[in-house]
Amino acid sequence: MAHRVxxxxxxxxxxxxxxxxxxxxxxxxxxxxxSSVHAEGRKSRASLERARGQVAAAIDATATDxxxxxxxxxxxxxALQGVLSARGPAHVVTTDVEHPAVSAALRSLEQxxxxxxxxxxxxxxxxxxxxxLQAALAEPAALCAVQWVNHETGTIAPVAxxxxxxxAAGVPCFIDATQAFGKLPLSVAQLGADLVALASHKIGGGAxxxxxxxRRGLDLExxxxxxxxxxxxxxxxxxxxxxxxxxxxxxxxxxxxxxxPRLAELRDRLEAGLVGLGAVRNAAAGPRVATCSNVYWPGRxxxxxxAALDLExxxxxxxxACSSGTNEPSPVLLAMHASEPARAQASTRFSFGVENFESDxxxxxxxxxxxxxxxxx
Length: 377
Known about the structure:
single chain, alpha/beta, Aspartate Aminotransferase, domain 1, Aspartate Aminotransferase, domain 2, 2 domains, 14 helices
């Protein structure tokens, strides 16, 4: 098999071998409905609750406050619709660079006339400060919804400051932490938010599982109605296998965090080489996580670059995996670099994971050197 290097960890991470090991034999042990009271059901329930406890421990939370979901998108939609569904026309504050799990959900509610939305900007990747959020909340709001780490650029928002402003204003604060979890330390007690969304496939746990932490006492209407599972907050028989994989990955979160300084060095080394090839860093004004480098290639097409690099053995992306294949310009880069719309169709994202090392940077730079030397790419 030809050599390949994977630098698209913001889209999905490989499943950790220890997560795979935790799933061995699970299909025979925990196949029954965990809501059933017989012995088979109790075995499934025990596995599910063990996973819930592991998720809770990873974020310094109480297990009963964790709602297990089928992924980060469901967790985000549950937070938004769960808070807003019981309210009439309401004001929501967010940003113009949210993941589609948030931005599309809010747009749908907005088009239905159920909410009015204020979207704060991040020019050049610079997140709004707490005073800007405070000004936006001068109009009474039903919810503030912001991501901690941007999925395309890795930009870090000061979400603890946002949560403090929201708390002072009496506004529930929802943090989409799906890209932050495993890259930044996360304690819901220290964060101070009211709802926090997580996703398994961003931390080596496999797809199909996520969680929404909900501050105790906050009213949350279910989006999925059914048998009253998850203490009435999420109907439907849970996927025990996916939850166990998520829990096993959460138990390893400390190790993942310990890799971040090393990955920052790899990112910086790669970036220096890419700039040497003519690339320009996107969102340079804001702080970012160790794992992400998003660069603009003047005069190039991102889709052509991604395809050519894939043939060379390098897996990267041109933006959010949720929007890939659409050939539409990146809404994140359009918003962050409004004066240079060309960036939105000529930028690529390189994102690192714990499996990457210096040799992967060398290989990536070799591939990029080969591809950008071709005038057609």
